[in-house]
Each structure stands twice: as C-alpha cells, then as structure tokens.
Design a protein that fits this description.
This protein is mainly α. The protein contains three helices and two strands, in the order H-E-H-E-H. Strand 1, helix 2 and strand 2 form a beta-alpha-beta unit.
Amino acid sequence: MRFGLIGEFGEQAERLTVVGDEALVNFDPLRQRRAAEAFASLSKTNQVLIFTCHPQMVELFTSVAPDAQVINLSEITA
C-alpha cells in the first residue's frame, strides 16, 4: 500500500526518494524476495536507497536488480 501511495504521489507531484534501512532483514525469505522485487520495480521511477550491513541482502537486491549500484562504505577512504 505504501508503494502505491509513493507511486500515486509521483504522478501528481515530484517523485520521492525512497530510503530503507535494514528494511527486509526480519522478513522470511519469500517475503524478502518479493519486497526486493517491489523495491526494484519502484526504482524504475523513483530513486531508491537501501542501507544494510548484511551481505545476503546485497546479494538479494543485486539478483533482482542487476543494474543496482552498490556502495560499500568500508571501501571508501577519506
């Protein structure tokens, strides 16, 4: 329902950036995949930022959105 609201808002006004922080870690595997697919679909029209420290979440998101850009903060130097 929230994704629908975000999409509907974007039809009427400026598209929103969507931010998720560990949004899927407490989901079961099937719900994780479906939610990741929903985020991937939403990313076609909106900027989507997902933050996680779990490598399996990175793998999941890149499997459903192969063109996703991954930034590993531990690899960034000042």
